Amino acid sequence: MADLLWYQYLLIGLIFAWSGFVRTSLGFGGAVLSLPFLLLVHDDPLVFLPIIAVHLLIFSSWIAWRGHRSRKLDARGHPEESNIDWAYLGKAMKVIIIPKLIGVIGLLTLPSRLMASIIFVIVIIYATGYVLNRPFKSRNTYVDNVLLALGGYISGTSLIGAPLLVAVFASHVAKHQLRDTLFVLWFILVVIKMTSFVIAGVDLQLIHHLWLLPCALVGHIIGERVHRTMIAAETPLFFRVLGVVLITVSIMGLLRPPA
Q: Once rounded to an integer, what is the mean pLDDT over residues 196-225?
């Protein structure tokens, strides 16, 4: 990423601020709603995925820990129910882990241009669900396992498997536990990916964390402050507009001539 132009750095900084905002306000989507834009700036997922992964590690652990510390005491003086559903998290990980590892191998072996195209196609599928107001939903155990496996694989290839995984977790985890349970899930999945990056010798872009982490932090802080408002504003119209934007960006990425 050292050879980019000044306006590309500016765009990347703004996109990472957007990523931090989305991640904090919705509890997911920091990668799936930012990676298509990043790939339009520089068409190589392995440049951005280590940076996104580190941000996920930092902010997911931060939010989950704050949720744990903020638990109140009940009438007997005991802490309230955990903000994380550890039982279902462990059950889901048994289905996710193998596809996740397979996806990581695919990311590290396939050409970057091919991986970028795969990511754009996945995002178009997600975004179409937003436009039609028919997001992925889990309805039975078999569908649960299929969505968990697909979400794990896509997460392994690109860190954008959140919509599939959220569809299942939202059906089994209490609403007050969902957000922090998802953040723990993201933390576990990202640790696996970061470990594979280190073993494979992928450039972690450490120097660029010095300026992109503050960009994401700005988005994170804004997202924290408007979290409740964003939840109330999650109307079908909001997601339809977002879906149209994502489809447009992804099509532009697919039609973009090779560098």
A: 86
